[in-house]
Design goal:
Distance between the termini: 31 Å
Strand order of the largest sheet: 1-3-14-12-7-9
Structural class: mainly beta
Number of strands: 50
Oligomer: single chain
Helix content: under 10%
CATH architecture of one domain: Sandwich
Shape: elongated
Strand content: over 45%
Radius of gyration: 26 Å
């Protein structure tokens, strides 16, 4: 986590965790001018690229004209913008005249919403043209619980947070601290620990051509999931869904899936088992469990029994299902020391199940209750407690985090990030860790 405190942006674009996330209102990507022509008149900009927050203005761009290495004054230069960028009058072109030093200000260049990327081009009669890149300032970061955040300047503005430190923009997958990881990505599933327990995490992806690949977080390498039907939906880790059939490694491992929940490692009460469970519901409403890497499927043991998971229940995470405002736990074969049946009632919605960031061995599921209150379910103990410092009606995100009115709150702590637009899937920051990472982007402004 960065400990610097750069100058904050104007309040209209205050970013998440401003102390670690803010950038100057206008930032030049580089300061080296474009290469001058060997002879004759040439044009150059004061930087190879310029940035400013969406809906604000780039105001420090200048163009210079040189003739045989000497400043060319009085040169009429035409400026052209692309990518939705405009000058103060709304036009995409402008004409400026160089001064005695051969330099002319380009004027205010308005940055459009949506995180656009464009070009500023300069041309003049009998002169070598020049161009500079234009873009919106990055607006992404990775937020952690326990509290902290890391800016993601490698991620372009307007990206969609995916999971952990991954973001997606225009079919390109980005990673905080890395930049571009993979192109031609049409869809991403849930990031989950590798069922092989290799210490890495796996992200299933569907590419633009319909093929399926699995990205390994340890080396950012994508491996084709050969045998997976074209256009399959990425589910989690190395799992894909085609129709109602679940595939792993190109092989059908479960069928009849109508709905599925979160893939998590099973805990028998005495520790993690190395088996990852995906809860799902089949076409007739039966609650079922799939286990990886064993590739086994069973009907939830308590399904249909008094107090057990009812018909048509919604799969939540691991061995948890929801029905009629209650959360139920099922077992694989009945031989479990954990409480099964209804664990908590009056549940309106839930977030992602993650380890407790503060207490090793616990796992938390954040809840919104029907009365709007916030609560945390200790899944192993089957105990639920209401929490303070969370606004009524807040949306549970994951771990101990809740989102309300563009603000992230931590249970019993309060605000940990403001001006939040979208959040992605909370996941462990590393295998074996209890620290949870959440990808976040600022709200998309309306210019």
């Amino acid at each position: 986590m960065s400990s610097s405190a750069p100058r904050a942006l104007p309040s209209r674009r205050t970013l998440i965790g401003a102390a670690v996330w803010a950038v100057p209102a206008v930032a030049a990507i580089a300061t080296a001018p474009a290469a001058a022509a060997v002879s004759g008149t040439s044009l150059s900009f004061s930087a190879t690229g310029y940035q400013a927050p969406m809906c604000m203005a780039i105001s420090d761009a200048t163009v210079r004209a040189d003739s045989a290495g000497v400043a060319a004054s009085g040169k009429l230069v035409t400026l052209q913008l692309s990518g939705g960028f405009t000058f103060a009058d709304g036009a995409s072109s402008s004409t400026v005249t160089t001064g005695s030093d051969g330099v002319a200000p380009c004027g205010d260049i308005r940055v459009p919403t949506g995180g656009a990327v464009g070009t500023l081009t300069a041309s003049a009669e009998e002169a070598v043209p020049a161009s500079a890149a234009l873009s919106a300032s990055p607006d992404a970061c990775v937020l952690f619980t326990p509290r902290g955040s890391i800016a993601a300047p490698e991620v372009p503005a307007g990206a969609t947070p995916v999971a952990g430190d991954f973001f997606l923009r225009d079919d390109v997958l980005y990673r905080q601290g890395v930049g571009i990881v993979l192109r031609e990505v049409a869809a991403a599933g849930a990031l989950a620990e590798n069922p092989a327990k290799s210490g890495s995490f796996l992200l299933p992806l569907c590419l633009a051509d319909g093929s399926a690949v699995v990205l390994d977080s340890a080396n950012n390498a994508a491996t084709p999931a050969t045998g997976t039907p074209a256009g399959a939906t990425p589910v989690a880790a190395d799992l894909f869904l085609s129709g109602a059939t679940l595939y792993r490694g190109g092989v059908a491992v479960a069928s009849g899936l109508v709905a599925y929940g979160q893939l998590v490692e099973h805990d028998q009460g005495s520790g993690l088992t190395g088996q990852f469970e995906l809860p799902f519901r089949d076409a007739d409403g039966t609650a079922r469990l799939y286990r990886s890497p064993a590739d086994e499927v069973r009907t939830a043991y308590e399904f249909g029994q008094p107090g057990g998971v009812p018909v048509g229940a919604t799969p939540v995470a691991g061995d948890l299902f929801a029905a009629d405002g209650a959360l139920y736990r099922a077992s694989w074969d009945g031989s479990t020391p954990l409480k099964t049946g209804a664990l908590v009632t009056q549940v309106a919605s839930w977030g992602a199940l993650t380890p407790n960031p503060y207490f090793s061995g616990q796992r938390l599921l954040p809840l919104r209750l029907v009365d709007g209150g916030a609560a945390l379910l200790d899944v192993l103990a089957g105990h639920v407690r209401t929490v303070a410092q969370i606004p009524s009606g807040a949306t549970p995100v994951g771990a101990d985090l809740f989102l309300a009115v563009a603000t992230l709150y931590q249970a019993d702590v309060g605000v940990v990030a403001d001006n939040v637009g979208r959040v992605g899937q909370p996941v462990l920051a590393a295998a074996g860790s209890s620290r949870v990472a959440v990808p976040v982007v600022a709200p998309m402004p309306a210019c």
